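Honest question from a wet-lab person: if I give you the sequences of every part of a complex, can you actually get the arrangement of the whole thing, not just the pieces? Trying it with mine:
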Amino acid sequence: MNEKTLVTWHNHSVDRKRGCVVWFTGLSGSGKSTVANCVDAKLHQLGEASFVLDGDNIRHGLNASPELLEPIHGGEYAKRFGLSFGPQDREENIRRIGCVAEVFCSAGLIALTAFVSPYRADRNRVRDLVSETSTDPLSMDFVEVFVDTPIEICEQRDPKGLYKKARAGEIKGFTGIDAPYESPENPELHLDGELPVEELAEQVIEFLRSKSKLRR
Amino acid sequence: MNEKTLVTWHNHSVDRKRGCVVWFTGLSGSGKSTVANCVDAKLHQLGEASFVLDGDNIRHGLNASPELLEPIHGGEYAKRFGLSFGPQDREENIRRIGCVAEVFCSAGLIALTAFVSPYRADRNRVRDLVSETSTDPLSMDFVEVFVDTPIEICEQRDPKGLYKKARAGEIKGFTGIDAPYESPENPELHLDGELPVEELAEQVIEFLRSKSKLRR
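Yes, you can. This is the full assembly:
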């Protein structure tokens, strides 16, 4: 392999269609993950390449807690890079997820993310990152989906029993109880979280279709 | 949306074929990125879903330096999460890339990574992560590719002028000069980095085909 061949290939990046990032935000129990997974299943049926990023696949790997990192990487390392619930940790949590979603988007996939992501500033930084790296200024590469469900309903559902713990004071800084949720001001999609999942997922699919994000 | 629907959908994850991680390792200038990009282009032609993770798309986002993070997130945050060239930083660099590659693999893609990744322990941790999350014990989900190019050749090529800087003492801890490179002991593929890129890329494609990693 001579240097000329090397240089030639380096410029020869694959011409691939860019995907998009569908960023679900809302309270715990609002239905973000449920709707995202339903959209994912529908996209799969339609032959689209998509993937859900959520706590289940991120919290044990990329955004592992200090407790998970410590046995493998040592205490000092775990304290530095492991993510707990401090303000810096929460910010870094969303930053890393945003970066991964952007890479998925570059790879041509529809990345569906389902995280509470309560702060406007954090979400807007992801929006900026995805928009800045877009190759087509007219293409909508970042779709913010606000899953708007009244907190009373979320608390009734309480699928993981977190509201109960937060009310009992066992969890501090819980969004909606003793930490704020900043609603999106201009989300691309505003979903009524009290409607059936199927209907909400269809709204997302129709929106993506209207923005030419589906291949067929 | 009632709780029953919620639960139903949560269990309804998409049944998708798992991809794999093709982990290129070797000295700076060995040809890792070049071969990975050539493999990516060939896979694209074959209709396979693949993507290259390398310094170009990781260093400005997920593994940004403190200098890049500081203006946006502040100094303390940048110092904690930004990645420089200390031992912890290098370890975290590979850990994050490994986690992202694993997620790509779960999403059904062939993730091609091109990083020097000089330490055996770091590479083996990624191997363990990818193997542990595999759903099929017989499937080869982690393919370590050693791009074996003599350092004299790498230094002659010196595409980024880094060896020159390292020799001049302007870069400290440069792999192969004043920091070690630990060769893989049992890589799935051992490439002779002096052969033409096309030939090396074909070797990778043939290997993936032999392990049933190509759909057609």
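Two things worth pointing out. Chain A touches chain B through 57 residues (CB under 8 Å). The CA atoms of residues 41 and 192 of chain A lie 20 Å apart.
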